[in-house]
Design brief:
single chain; 278 residues; mainly alpha; two-stranded antiparallel sheet; 8 helices; 4% strand; disordered C terminus
Length: 278
């Protein structure tokens, strides 16, 4: 047993030394002109997508829109398959997938019931849909799907929600849901109560965009420098992506359910004061 441990230790040391030699050789022999873009240009393109454009149905669009179309199609197809083929086969003793699905629905349902106790059903369905879209849209970049730009270059498609337009659209859609709930529940007075928080869609949009963009920029920064571009980008990229996916899904769902609950909360009528004097 002791001899086996010594052999395994030697084998591990040899492999680590071999990996170190390969990394040092790659760094030493790396051509100095391998980078065609500066770090500033890479980060600017990660925000504005002005360089790498794609053709979609005859229109020139940024890569995030193409990612959004692909991600939406995947989610709709998955939802149809689950509803038609999986849910009818649910059993009293659930399997693993049924447990995961039920826990996911229960999580958003409990959040809606806690933050919006008066009318939790609709907001529960909305935050479930929005949360699933944000989570899997953030994980989309881990797939590394390649696309060909209008200039013939091949680039990896980014996360759909990393584009400022997608973040703004999600923020204003959530605000429209809250405003609609206020109008339906409280009429014009309820709508005016929601309109007071006019900064809500802006704050939600930029919170979502900023958090996801920070992960993208950190990953690009790590990939850019050769000395950091071995093993570390995999760890950084996956951790940042998973962390942002979970946090932003939870934050948006919580904010929407809270503001929705305030919008549909019945207005307490003040009792009339007795004007009679003793």
């Amino acid at each position: 047993m002791e001899q086996y441990r010594k052999q395994r230790k030697r084998f591990l040391i040899v492999w680590l030394m071999l990996i170190a030699v390969i990394c040092i050789g790659i760094i030493a022999l790396w051509p100095p002109d391998a980078k065609h873009e500066t770090l500033q240009e890479i980060m600017l393109d990660g925000v504005l997508h002005e360089e790498n454009r794609f053709s979609l149905f005859g229109l020139t669009v940024n890569p995030a829109l193409l990612s959004a179309v692909i991600m939406t199609g995947i989610l709709l197809a998955a939802a149809a398959v689950i509803r038609i083929f999986v849910i009818p086969r649910f059993r009293m003793v659930p399997g693993k997938f049924q447990v995961v699905l039920e826990k996911l629905v229960e999580f958003f349902g409990d959040m809606a019931a806690a933050n919006s106790p008066h009318k939790p059903k609709f907001v529960g369905a909305y935050i479930f849909s929005a949360g699933v879209y944000i989570f899997f849209s953030t994980l989309f970049e881990l797939l590394g799907i390649q696309g060909v730009t209008t200039e013939g270059a091949s680039v990896a498609l980014p996360a759909p929600i990393s584009d400022i337009n997608a973040a703004i659209a999600m923020g204003f859609l959530s605000y429209a849901v809250i405003l609609g709930a206020g109008l339906i529940s409280g009429g014009l007075r309820g709508g005016l109560r929601v309109l007071k928080d006019f900064s809500l869609p802006v704050s939600m949009s930029f919170r979502l965009f900023g958090a996801l963009l920070s992960g993208l920029l950190v990953t690009e920064l790590v990939y850019y420098y050769v000395s950091l571009s071995f093993i570390l980008p995999v760890i950084v990229g996956i951790l940042f992506t998973l962390l942002h996916a979970a946090i932003q899904t939870y934050v948006l769902a919580t904010l929407v359910s809270i503001f929705y609950g305030e919008a549909v909360e019945p207005v307490k009528k003040k009792g009339k004061k007795d004007k009679k004097h003793e």
